[in-house]
Inverse folding.
């Protein structure tokens, strides 16, 4: 019993001694800040005795491999600009926060794409790369779906549209060889709605909600600008790949690595296996020089200069060509193609020109149905549709259609047409607005009244206005070949339409310190 008490007392004294040394070491760290954070200093402290049967702590893990500069810079973009946008979105809540969560996931998924590209070679089959980008496409599509669900609230719809238009900028990873202009185009598309939100926020100055929305839209605009600068700095000619990396399909990401097994409590973990012996690279193959090899033998310029100094005597070595060897007098020689024979003698065929990857969006079936108050018409490639409006609160949304004719019967709230080509549409009376964006080669007719018509990024449109649309407000942005055909106020059905082109060329002058813009008129 006395021996056990002595052993216990000895253990207490040793623990007290170790505690005193640790306290003294902590005081030294607090008095000298320059030594803080140096792990090698901890090795000077004598460890406390380890009781029998316990496990010694495992050695610290080896330092992780340094990330490429492109990934490190993208992490800064995530922690600063993206985080700021997500924080402001969380303050607003509702659909804005829901959409922001998808944008945050989209930005995080793109980091994995950049990291994978930095550690693997560019795949020869770009279908594998497109398959890996499906989660990004789902985020972009989800952000647009949230926008489509809130068309009734005009101000909310503009905010959500600004985000969905700019979300496509994260698709720069598929653009070669100039992704920077693509990102700028997506940012310009979003900037149109960003400026509209800023204008309404400025008009409601002093309102707490307006102030929060203003900070939110500024953070989103700053995020798109930062993404543009990042792509311009690290991926100016396309996504950066690693020629010395692994195969794209063999890449194992950080989340796919197997977790380390926990050591048993009975003893220390087994030592790591020794590193494999370095394997010497194989010697380069010895290639015999041939006449078709890429490297030509050096030319002796001395003999060339010597021949040039002969003057007219240099032609004495020429032999007379027989009549049978003249191609212009022998049709049989002209039928032969020496150019083809030289090409046939080459060793390797010309490498195939790489084709562009297919669009990431898969082909989906057409859709025509009423969802609440929204008539949805999507993905039609041809045909004719008639929509009968039963409630004036209903509105029509047409997306990704071509070679389609749509007739809307009845008074409705609004019409939106997005990403359409060669679509014709006839409507009666529209209470709110008609929005046409990202479309071309359209024909649109309003037989009743409509207060406003918005055309954004439209190339080629013929708009017919009835006699009741004399007070309509038409707004255009980034458009070309827009013609308005209309009748005079109070005109009858027999009167012909008169076509008026929308000005495309503007002239801006400075008068009294202000910009004055007027359309250019060509008279003559």
């Amino acid at each position: 019993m006395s021996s056990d008490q002595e052993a216990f007392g000895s253990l207490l004294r040793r623990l007290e001694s170790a505690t005193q040394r640790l306290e003294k070491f902590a005081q030294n760290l607090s008095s000298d800040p320059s030594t803080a954070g140096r792990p090698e200093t901890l090795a000077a402290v004598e460890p406390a005795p380890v009781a029998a049967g316990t496990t010694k702590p495992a050695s610290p893990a080896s330092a992780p491999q340094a990330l490429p500069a492109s990934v490190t810079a993208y992490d800064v973009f995530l922690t600063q600009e993206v985080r700021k946008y997500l924080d402001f979105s969380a303050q607003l809540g509702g659909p804005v926060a829901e959409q922001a969560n998808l944008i945050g996931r989209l930005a995080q998924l793109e980091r994995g794409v950049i990291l994978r590209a930095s550690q693997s070679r560019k795949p020869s089959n770009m279908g594998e790369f497109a398959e890996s980008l499906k989660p990004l496409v789902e985020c972009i599509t989800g952000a647009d779906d949230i926008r489509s669900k809130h068309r009734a609230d005009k101000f909310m719809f503009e905010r959500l549209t600004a985000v969905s238009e700019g979300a496509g900028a994260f698709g720069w990873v598929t653009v070669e060889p100039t992704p920077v202009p693509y990102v700028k185009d997506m940012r310009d598309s979003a900037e149109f709605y960003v400026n509209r939100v800023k204008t309404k926020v400025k008009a409601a100055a002093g309102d707490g909600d307006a102030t929060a929305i203003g900070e939110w839209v500024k953070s989103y605009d700053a995020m798109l600008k930062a993404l543009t600068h990042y792509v311009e700095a690290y991926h100016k000619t396309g996504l950066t790949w690693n020629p010395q990396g692994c195969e794209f399909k063999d890449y194992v990401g950080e989340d796919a690595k197997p977790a380390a097994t926990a050591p048993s409590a009975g003893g220390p973990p087994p030592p790591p296996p020794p590193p494999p012996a370095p394997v010497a690279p194989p010697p380069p193959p010895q290639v015999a020089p041939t006449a078709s090899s890429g490297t030509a033998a050096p030319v002796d310029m001395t003999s060339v200069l010597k021949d040039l100094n002969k003057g007219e005597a240099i032609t004495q070595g020429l032999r007379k060509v027989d009549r049978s060897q003249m191609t212009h007098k022998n049709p049989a020689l002209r039928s032969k193609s020496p150019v083809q024979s030289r090409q046939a003698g080459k060793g390797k065929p010309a490498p195939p020109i790489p084709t562009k990857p297919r669009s990431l969006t898969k082909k989906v079936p057409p859709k025509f149905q009423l969802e609440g108050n929204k008539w949805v018409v999507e993905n039609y490639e041809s045909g004719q549709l008639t929509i009968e409006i039963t409630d004036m609160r209903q509105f029509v949304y047409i997306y990704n259609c071509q070679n389609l004719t749509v007739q809307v019967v009845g008074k409705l709230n609004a019409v939106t047409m997005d990403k359409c080509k060669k679509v014709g549409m006839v409507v009666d009376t529209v209470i709110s607005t008609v929005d046409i964006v990202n479309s071309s080669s359209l024909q649109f007719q309003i037989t009743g009244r409509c207060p406003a018509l918005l055309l954004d990024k439209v190339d080629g449109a013929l708009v017919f206005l009835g006699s009741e649309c004399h007070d309509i407000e038409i707004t255009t942005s980034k458009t070309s070949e827009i013609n308005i055909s209309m009748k005079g106020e109070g005109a009858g059905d027999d009167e012909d339409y008169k076509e008026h082109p929308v000005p495309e060329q503007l002239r801006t002058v400075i008068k009294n310190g202000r910009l004055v813009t007027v359309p250019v008129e060509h008279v003559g």
About this structure: Residues 2-31 form the longest helix (30 residues). DSSP finds eleven helices and 14 strands in the chain. The mean pLDDT is 77.
